Each structure stands twice: as structure tokens, then as C-alpha cells.
Amino acid sequence: MNCDQLRDHYDLFALDIAEQPERDEIRAHLNRTCEVCTSGVKRSLETAALIGAAAPPAQPSSQLRRRILASVGGQERSSRGLNWWAPVLAMTALAIVAVYLAIGSRQYAQAADRLRDQVRGQAAQIGRLTQAFAILSGSRTIEASFGGAQPKPPQGKVFVNPSRGVLLIASNLPRTPADKIYEMWIIPKTAKPVPAGLFQSQDDGNAMHVQPGTVDVPSTAAIAVTVENQAGAGQPTTQPLIVASLAATPR
Amino acid sequence: MMLPLILAVYASSDERALIGRLQRRDPQALADLYDRYGRAAYSLVLRVVHDKSIAEDLVQETFLRVWNRVHSIDSEKGSIGPWLLAIARNRAIDYLRSSAGRERNAVELNETDHAPLYREMETDILISDQARRVKAALDKLAPNYKTVMELAYFEGLSQSEMSVRMGQPLGTIKTWVRTALQSLRDELGVAVSP
Predict the structure, then answer these.
(1) What band does B193 get if pLDDT is binned at 50, 70 and 90?
(2) Cβ-contact A13, A25 below 8 angstroms
(3) d(C-alpha B87, C-alpha B63), whole Å
(4) Which of B118, B148, B171 is the last residue of a domain?
(5) B16 to chain A, minimum CA–CA distance in Å?
(6) Fold (CATH) for A142-245
(7) Quick one: pLDDT at residue A113?
(8) Domain range spanning residue B156?
(9) What is the ipTM score, two decimals?
(10) Is residue B194 situated within a structural domain?
(11) Which CATH number do you get for residue B90?
(12) Do B76 and B12 belong together in one domain?
């Protein structure tokens, strides 16, 4: 189909209600960076964004901001509602301040920077571990193993909770090339793989990756991992290194 | 009524700097992103799922997704606000489809996640008075037209599903959708670039 025939379907495409064959046709035009369709779809996405802004205003809880920041290792500027690990962070921060006040030299300022990075890293780790624990302790969590049959395989387990997300724990992972990264995928039974986050392995080949969120477990066939470019991919571009099938797992 | 929301999605001239800080993995940049778009994303998701707890989970998922994929945005040309709201909406619709046993629409999810489509989009389309006009435009639509727009945008129903829900022939639904979109486009003609 040509661009003129697709023009009336840009809005439907942006709203996810375009039907076949127009949907695939527009997708094909976008994939080959067709200027006309890219411009048209972009305009429709703008309209869609405006419709989204028309939703009735609502106020999320104050915990949401903290949850989001904790999941990437950030911390609240304000002291409202301290977490259980806050005293540890506070003490470390005090130590950093003491170093500044007592010495004040550039050398120790650098040390303080390193400490600050360590605190940030520890907070990130705490966030990940909290999410992992929530998945592991969930009553509806199921697990699946992978890698047992290969000679020198990445081995490990995935844990899937319908409301809390997916936890992957792996060992024997090969080091990725400098410009590559591991990407986890949720593989539905009847649809295309859904990206589930990027991660790197440690030097010893171990890795733990958490993808928080909801998972439709009955319609999920497997959890997989591929090697992708640093920015990640919308769909897998390499053969999976890990496939943990949920098919035989009791639900 | 719209003003707080409009302010919440205010995208200032330092949006490019914000994208750059996110790409450098600065957690404080995520805090700033949340302060700018968190309420708008939550309002949108809550409108879709009608459950505060689930809405917060999905908004958290949205911000983590943006955090993990922000490298796909061109900091010189990208527009993170509309992209973030699109991801939020699609996470919510995807949840709705899953919980209702409807087919998940992973293909569209990924396409709307496709950051390059949000290149050079006006970063202030959400703050201009067009954002206020869109609600007025929706309110102006005839009831059937408004219903199909809301079913499409806030419930993610296909035209076939709308046909079943509203008990109308598919052809009628398609006509209503087309007319509603055209009416909206006429109202918002100034808001969107030609």
C-alpha cells in the first residue's frame, strides 16, 4: 500500500486500534523510515499525547516517588517517611560530612566522592534486593530452572510473580563485548517477546536481574535472555542464551 | 481543573539537559523526571485501570522502562514527555488486556516505545493551551463519538471490540471513530504540526 492509502490510518495506528493489513503496512513504512508515514504517525502520536493529558487529574501517594527512586539507587531529598535503611545512609552521609569538615583537602574530597558513590551503589543494591525478596516471598511466585543440559551453560533460575515481576538469577554467563548488554524477555505463548530490562553480569559470570511489574503468567511461555546492543532492542536480534520454560511449571 | 495537570507536564527548556542526565544514569535526574511527569502519568494510568495500587505499580514500571531505554532518545531532538505518557498508557492498556483475558498487544507496545518516533516533537505540546483545548474538544464531541474515543484511548478496545461492546455494526463504529478523530483534528489543528 502507498502512503496515500495509509494516511487515514495513522491516528488509528497511534491509538493501537489500526486493523490489518494497514497496521502491518504502516509498520513496514516506519521500519524503512518512510518520511511521509513517519511524519504522519508522529503527528498522530502528538494528538494521542494530548488526549492523555485530558485525563482527570489525580495525586499519587508520596511513597511512589520513593519507590521509583529506590529502584534505581536514588534517594529522596526530603526526610519524609524514612525507610529502614535510612539510618545507615544517614550515618554514612555524616561520615562524609565529617571528612569534609575535618580535612577539607582535595584528596579527601575525592574520597568523599567515592564514599558517596558507594552509598548510591548500596542504595541501588538494596532497592534491587528488596524487589527480589518481594518476588521470592510472594505466595503466587513460580520458578523455573535453565541450563542444566548444556556442557558449560549459563545456569540458574527464574522466579515469576504475577503482580511483582520477574527475578532472574544466573551463573556462568560469558562476558559480553564492550558495546553489548544482556536483555531479558518475557515470551508470551501467542505474541511477540516483550522486553524485560537490560543487565550486565559480574566479572565472575554471576548476575541477578529484576523486572518489576505485572506478568500475565498463564499466557507466558518462557523467560529468555539475549545479547543486544547497549541501548537494548525492541525484539530479540540474537539467539537466546537462556530460555527458562514456564510450560512445565505448576501454576 | 486542567491547570495542575498542565503544569505537571510542563516541559521546560532544560528537557534536553534532563535527557542527558538520565543517559548518564544520574538517579536525581529520574527524581526530576518524576516531579515533572509523575502526576500526569499517574492520572492517565489511573483513568485506565481505576485502581490506585495497580496504577502506582504501572507508573513505577513506566519510569523504570524509561530509565532503561533512555539511551534510545536523541538528547538533541527527543521529546521525553510524550514518549513517557505513551509508555504509561500502553503499560496500563496492556494490564487491562491481560486482566480481562484479552490478547496482549505486545507489538504495538513496542512500537509506541519506539523513541525515535518522538524526535523533534514539540516538547511543550502538553503545556500549551492546546492541552486545555483537547478536553474541551472531547467534551464537544457527540456522545457516541466521545464514547468511541474513550473506549479506544482509555480502554484500548479495537474497533471490533467496540462494535460488540456498543452493539453497533462494525461499519458504524468505524464511521464514528473516523468522524470523531477528524473532529478532534479540526479542533486541535493548531496544536499539531502540519
Answers:
(1) very low
(2) no
(3) 9
(4) B118
(5) 18
(6) Immunoglobulin-like (2.60.40)
(7) 66
(8) 129-187
(9) 0.76
(10) no
(11) 1.10.1740.10
(12) yes
Residues of chain A positioned with their CB less than 8 A from the CB of B128: none
As a whole number of Å, the end-to-end CA separation of chain A is 45
Domain-located, residue B160:
yes
> CATH no. for residue B172?
1.10.10.10
Query: Taking CB atoms and an 8 Å limit, are B64 and A212 in contact across chains?
Result: yes
Shared domain check, B63 and B98: yes
Those of residues 102-121 in A touching chain B at CB distance below 8 A are 120
pLDDT of residue B111: 44
Is residue A76 within 8 Å of residue B155, measured between CB atoms?
no
Contact B159 A61 (CB under 8 A): no
- Identify whether the C-beta of residue A128 lies closer than 8 Å to the C-beta of residue A168: no
Confidence of residue B169 (pLDDT cuts 50, 70, 90): very high
- Residue of chain A minimizing CA distance to B81: A49
Distance from CA of B9 to the nearest CA of A (A): 8
CA pair distance A175, A164, nearest whole angstrom: 29
Q: What is the pLDDT of residues B50-108, one digit of tens each?
A: 999 999 999 998 998 888 888 877 766 667 888 888 889 888 988 888 776 555 444 34
* Euclidean distance between CA atoms B60 and A130, whole angstroms: 15
- Least confident window among A11-15, B63-67, B141-145: A11-15
- Domains of chain A by residue range: 3-52, 63-133, 142-245
In this prediction, residues B135-145 reach a mean pLDDT of: 86
Tens-digit pLDDT profile for residues A17-47? 888 888 888 888 887 778 888 888 887 877 7
d(CA A230, CA A179): 6
Does B135 lie in the same domain as B108? no
Q: B112: which chain A residues are within 8 Å (Cβ-Cβ)?
A: 14, 16, 45
CA B80 to chain centre: 12
Q: Which of B88, B118, B148 is the last residue of a domain?
A: B118
Using CB atoms, pick whichever of A50, A65, A76 lies closest to residue B130. A50
Do B103 and B168 have their domain in common?
no
